[in-house]
Design a protein that fits this description.
single chain; 110 residues; mainly beta; 2 helices; 6 strands; globular
């Protein structure tokens, strides 16, 4: 008599990108310029924040570009609450590839 047993093994898929969950991303704004101290200045979206401090991202929040690559972390928030400006401390990998390429790009916060 021949007996065949088949087992289904569930293995977690660990090669997914670290920042692949787009449902938790919110549009932060558009990059205006790069300062001489290599800080990125972003103008926040007017419709996104609507005057509430709770909707603003926290300091050290991770900022991503449209291809879900990390750009840096929020280091400061200034300006009016309706349309705030943000400063980012860029990631070392972004500095190496060139910050000038990021100007006028939309960025997202996780």
């Amino acid at each position: 008599m021949l007996t065949i047993s088949i087992y289904r093994i569930s293995v977690p898929y660990s090669t997914k990108p670290k920042y692949s969950n787009r449902t938790h991303m919110k549009r932060l704004g558009q990059i205006l310029h790069i300062s001489k101290q290599n800080e990125i200045v972003i103008r926040g979206d007017e419709k996104k924040f609507s005057g509430s401090m709770k909707e603003l991202p926290r300091i050290n929040s991770l900022v991503l570009d449209k291809s879900i690559k990390p750009i840096g972390k929020v280091s400061g928030i200034f300006g009016p609450v309706d349309q705030p400006y943000f400063t980012l401390k860029p990631d070392k990998r972004v500095i190496a590839t060139g910050l000038e390429k990021l100007v006028n790009e939309r960025v997202y916060v996780q």
